[in-house]
């Protein structure tokens, strides 16, 4: 019996050495989770039970469990390196075979798909053709590396303050080249369908108390002239802008005849402060043209663009533009990627725009100990683990995502080296048990 007991002890100590050695070997493996050998004693039993005072029959390896405690977060210089701080696993796809990992070595392949260092596709919520994130639609994440197409301006939002203490200009009529014919001015870049930038300029002329004339030019030309050719003149689009006693916009109307006294205006535009500038003919300077301008072959946004000045004021303070934004942009090249802690992937372009490329998801299991390790720091689902629950990082009990970082192995080398010594001593002690049993057996054999 003692031979079997000693032999089982040797086997157990060998298993312990193997598990400990594997932990030590993977102390530098990102996302690795250390294992622990778990043993149980053995008792011989009969039909009626083990008896009143049973003797042990050795030891067996009960299980090799993995400890999924958090590893240290180590920051790197790669924006696509990802670390999970908390619960969860990355879901990767190898030609339809799903596996789960904590190792966040990710990059892009030649088609822009985000893959790990074995070429497996990282999965998450994808976007549609319009760049809208499709919540719940899981697929292979891909970064669009092509140039971003330009977008013509469709809206401008602006807020400003006109100085109520200013007097009307003494020089008339309005001339954009003569600053003495207007009180204040401001400019904004807008874009045509080819991404060419054009300068929209507003000139403000005070007519009377609480009453201003706003003149608008694009590249020094009239924005609303519908002629096929570029007009030679610089007649602006004119608007009458009125404020109430509290300094808020009260009325807005387009001036149709500036020569009349007072100027003739069209119907009141509602809501006051918001209007539409119709299609205009994008042009570019041309010294060979009689007018000095030629059409550039692009178009403005069909239907023009809206101009929203609501919230602008007339107070007793200097003229200032406190906010301005427009939604057009020129073409842009991919400049970089950012991934936030919820897994949303943003692409930044050289035109100042950003675009959502997808969202990384994490998977979790009711019993992570039931996952089956398959190597390459990856696990696969098993019957014991249960079905994966997939959600964005930070949802429920899932951890957050840290971009530009990797999770180190959770192996503590000092502990493993001590375990190594203990396993070695156990092996030696069980070998001594066999040696002692052998000596006793030899004594019996040598009896005369």
From TrEMBL:
PANTHER family: FLAGELLAR HOOK PROTEIN FLGE, FLAGELLAR PROTEIN
Coiled-coil regions listed in the entry: none
Flagellar basal-body/hook protein C-terminal domain residues: 402-447
Family: Belongs to the flagella basal body rod proteins family.
Entries under Gene3D superfamilies matching the protein: Flagellar hook protein FlgE
Location, primary (coarse class): other
Localization per Swiss-Prot or TrEMBL: Bacterial flagellum basal body
Keywords: Bacterial flagellum, Cell projection, Cilium, Flagellum
Residue ranges of domain Flagellar hook protein FlgE/F/G-like D1 in the record: 83-140
Sequence ranges assigned to domain Flagellar hook protein FlgE D2 in this UniProt record: 161-329
UniProt name for this protein: Flagellar hook protein FlgE
Statement: the UniProt record of this protein carries the keyword Ribonucleoprotein: no
Species whose genome carries this gene: Pseudomonas spirodelae
Function: A flexible structure which links the flagellar filament to the drive apparatus in the basal body.
Ranges for domain Flagellar basal body rod protein N-terminal: 4-33
């Amino acid at each position: 019996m003692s031979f079997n007991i000693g032999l089982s002890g040797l086997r157990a100590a060998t298993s312990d050495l193997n598990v400990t050695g594997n932990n030590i070997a993977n102390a530098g493996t990102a996302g690795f989770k250390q294992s622990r050998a778990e043993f149980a004693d053995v008792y011989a039993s009969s039909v009626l039970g083990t008896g009143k005072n049973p003797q042990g029959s050795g030891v067996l390896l009960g299980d090799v469990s993995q400890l999924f405690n958090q590893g240290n977060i180590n920051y790197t210089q790669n924006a696509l390196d990802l670390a999970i701080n908390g619960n969860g696993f990355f879901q990767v796809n190898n030609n339809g075979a799903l596996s789960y990992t904590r190792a966040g070595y990710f990059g892009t392949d030649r088609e822009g798909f985000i893959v790990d260092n074995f070429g497996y596709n990282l999965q998450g919520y994808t976007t549609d053709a319009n760049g809208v994130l499709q919540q719940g639609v899981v697929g292979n994440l891909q970064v669009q590396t092509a140039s971003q197409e330009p977008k013509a301006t469709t809206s401008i939002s602006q807020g400003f303050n006109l100085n109520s203490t200013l007097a009307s200009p003494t020089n008339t009529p309005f001339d954009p080249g003569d600053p003495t014919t207007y009180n204040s001015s401001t400019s904004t870049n807008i874009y045509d369908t080819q991404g060419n930038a054009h300068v929209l300029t507003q000139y403000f002329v005070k007519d009377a108390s609480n009453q201003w004339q706003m003149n608008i030019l694009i590249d020094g030309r009239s924005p609303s002239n519908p002629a096929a050719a570029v007009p030679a003149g610089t007649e602006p689009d004119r608007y009458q802008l009125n404020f109430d006693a509290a300094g808020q916009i009260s009325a807005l109307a387009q001036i149709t005849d500036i020569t009349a006294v007072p100027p003739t205006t069209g119907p009141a535009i509602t809501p006051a402060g918001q209007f539409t500038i119709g299609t205009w003919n994008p042009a570019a300077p041309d010294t060979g043209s009689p007018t000095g301008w030629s059409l550039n072959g692009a178009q403005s946004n069909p239907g023009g663009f809206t101009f929203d000045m609501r919230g602008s004021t007339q107070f007793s303070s200097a003229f200032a533009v406190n906010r301005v934004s427009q939604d057009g942009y020129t073409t842009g090249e991919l400049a970089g990627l950012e991934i936030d802690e919820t897994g949303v992937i943003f692409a930044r372009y050289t035109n100042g725009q950003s675009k959502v490329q997808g969202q990384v998801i994490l998977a979790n299991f009711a019993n992570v100990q039931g996952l089956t390790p398959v190597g390459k720091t990856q696990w696969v689902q098993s019957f014991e683990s249960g079905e994966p629950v997939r959600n964005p990082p930070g949802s429920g009990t899932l951890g957050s995502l840290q971009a530009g970082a990797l999770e180190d192995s959770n192996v503590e080398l000092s502990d493993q080296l001590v375990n190594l010594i203990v396993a070695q001593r156990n092996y030696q002690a069980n070998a001594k048990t066999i040696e002692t049993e052998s000596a006793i057996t030899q004594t019996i054999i040598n009896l005369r």
